[in-house]
């Protein structure tokens, strides 16, 4: 049943009640929710054009490579299949470089000639100015703040996440980035560190992210409710999903009145 305050998620409710009863999710969360954890890339921030097909092509030119932007998406999907996470989910820059190199080869770069270009592209992913907030991000963050909730960022990637938050003027309490932490999502320790630094238990937090494997499954494995940000509408069967962050306050059961509106 999905009806405003009586928005019921059986799985979540069973988690919270030990499988003994059904209650409206919003009423439960009003009592226990203390913090919201956000993924960064494709959840709050959109990577800019320098990190997309044309950016690859332009950077390739600087390295004497001809990279076809039209082949980018297919190459990216193939790289996802071919380059696996570190087996123990350790943050490893070499994996990011290998992933990027695979994309460049998929776009027409010669095998064995793309590494330097890939290293430069990985550096581009560390530049804070290459990322842009989605229009719905600040309103969602502000709504969460108005309800007195703490905010954490959890991100895989090469950037310094604390510097990134400061650069973009984000009002957050905690940042846990995989380079400093040492593990990547969905490893439990990256979520546990965020919870610990925020001073909340799993049942008192919600994770919001766009990656089903990294954000959603990772958080749920620890008993953290996870809301999928499904901007493209490709996970229609996922019960706990939103297509825009503007829907987040309602999904969290936050009422406008309680937020002083
Ligand atoms: Mg993401």
Task: Describe the protein.
With 261 residues, the chain is an alpha/beta fold. It has 2 domains: 4-46 and 132-251, HAD superfamily/HAD-like (Rossmann fold, 3-Layer(aba) Sandwich); 47-129, DNA polymerase, domain 1 (Orthogonal Bundle), CATH 1.10.150. It is 41% helix and 12% strand. A 6-stranded parallel beta sheet has the order 5-4-1-6-7-8, with helices on both faces. It has a two-stranded antiparallel sheet with strand order 2-3. Helix 11 links the parallel strand 6 (205-209) and strand 7 (225-229). Helix 4 crosses helix 5 (93-106). It starts with 9 loop residues before the first helix and ends in a 10-residue tail after the last helix. Residues 1-30 have low confidence and may be disordered. Bound molecules: magnesium ion. The site of magnesium ion has 7 residues, from loops.
Quick take:
The chain has 261 residues and is an alpha/beta fold. The protein contains twelve helices and eight strands. It has helices at residues 10-17, 25-32, 53-62, 72-82, 93-106, 115-124, 137-146, 161-167, 178-181, 188-198, 212-220, 248-251; strands spanning 35-38, 45-47, 131-133, 150-155, 174-177, 205-209, 225-229, 241-242.
What is the straight-line distance between the termini?
27 Å
CATH topology of the largest domain: Rossmann fold
Please estimate the helix content: 40-55%
- Structural class determined from secondary elements: alpha/beta
H-E string: HHEEHHHHEHEHEHHEHEEH
How much of the residues is beta strand, in percent? 5-15%
CATH H-level superfamily title of the largest domain? HAD superfamily/HAD-like
The counted number of beta strands is 8
CATH architecture of the largest domain: 3-Layer(aba) Sandwich
Question: In angstroms, what is the radius of gyration?
Answer: 20 Å
Q: Helical segment tally?
A: 12
Oligomer: single chain
> What small ligands are held by the chains?
magnesium ion
**Main sheet: which strands, in order across?**
5-4-1-6-7-8
Which parts are unreliable, with pLDDT below 50 for 5 consecutive residues or more?
Answer: 1-30
């Amino acid at each position: 049943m999905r009806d405003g305050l009586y928005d019921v998620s059986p799985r979540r409710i069973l988690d919270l009640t030990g499988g003994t009863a059904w209650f409206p999710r919003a009423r439960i969360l009003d009592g226990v929710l203390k913090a919201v954890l956000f993924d960064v890339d494709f959840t709050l921030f959109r990577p800019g054009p320098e990190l997309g097909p044309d950016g690859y092509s332009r950077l390739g030119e600087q390295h004497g490579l001809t990279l076809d932007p039209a082949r980018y998406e297919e190459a990216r999907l193939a790289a996802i299949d071919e380059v696996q996470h570190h087996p123990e989910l350790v943050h490893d820059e070499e994996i990011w470089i290998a992933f990027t190199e695979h994309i460049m080869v998929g776009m027409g770069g010669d095998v064995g000639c793309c590494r330097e270009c890939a290293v430069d592209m990985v550096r581009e992913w560390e530049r804070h100015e290459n990322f842009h907030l989605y229009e719905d991000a600040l309103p969602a963050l502000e709504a969460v703040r108005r309800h007195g909730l703490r905010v954490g960022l959890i991100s895989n990637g090469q950037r310094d996440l604390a510097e990134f938050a400061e650069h973009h003027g984000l009002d957050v309490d905690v940042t846990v980035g995989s380079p400093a932490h040492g593990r990547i999502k969905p490893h439990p320790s990256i979520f546990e560190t965020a919870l610990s630094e925020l001073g909340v238990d799993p049942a008192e937090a919600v994770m919001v992210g766009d990656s089903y494997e990294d954000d959603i499954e990772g958080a749920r494995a620890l008993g953290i409710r996870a809301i999928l940000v499904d901007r493209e509408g490709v996970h229609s069967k996922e019960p706990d999903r939103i297509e825009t962050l503007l829907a987040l306050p309602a999904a969290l059961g936050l009422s406008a009145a309680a937020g002083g509106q």
